Amino acid sequence: MSADTTTLTGNADLFAVLKILLNLANALNRSEFALSAKRTLEIGTIEGARSLGLSDHIGSLTPGKRADLIMLSTNALNMGYVTEPHQLIVEAAQPANVHTVMVDGRILKRNYTLTHLNKDKILAEAKDEFEKIMKKSGW
After folding, report:
1. In 3D, which of 112, 99, 109 has the Cα closest to residue 73?
2. Confidence check: pLDDT of 4 > 70
3. How many whole angstroms separate alpha carbon 72 and alpha carbon 95?
4. Are 109 and 101 in contact (CB under 8 A)?
């Protein structure tokens, strides 16, 4: 599963992509149990790593693999009642629920805030580059 073309998808919300996968698979099979939330989450994690030939390094929480984690808060209304974690992640989670992100053991987001990027600087640089491209193209 991926959302690498945000121009087409509108954003890179992989939670939404997983939910669409689950709902579409179940609708096409005319069974709300054809694809489970657990299997959907596997498709979004370990199966993605396998498809890229990276499952020895990423895709699951296994000793010896990179420490890549997304930690969700269950304090929001959409996450407040946990009965089955896989179901909650696939059916209810949103990017706003991401509290902490760790990639290869480095914390990149903590307490809902990016720790390694200057968002304002990135947006300003992107805007400047866009304006240069538009000017160069005659727009």
Report:
1. 99
2. no
3. 9
4. yes
Q: How far is 82 from 76, CA to CA, in rounded Å? A: 11
Cα–Cα distance measured from residue 46 to residue 114, given in angstroms and rounded to the nearest whole number = 25
User: How far is 90 from 41, CA to CA, in rounded Å?
Assistant: 7
d(CA 40, CA 42): 5
Per the DSSP assignment, residues forming a β-bridge with 37 are: none
Task: Please say whether the beta carbons of 108 and 101 come within 8 A.
Answer: yes
For CA atoms 114, 120, 121, 127, the dihedral sign is positive
CA distance linking residue 21 with residue 9, whole number of Å: 14
Mind listing the pLDDT tens digit for each residue in 84-96? 999 999 999 999 9
Q: Is the pTM of this model over 0.85?
A: no
Contacting residues for 135 by C-beta, under 8 A, at least 6 apart: none
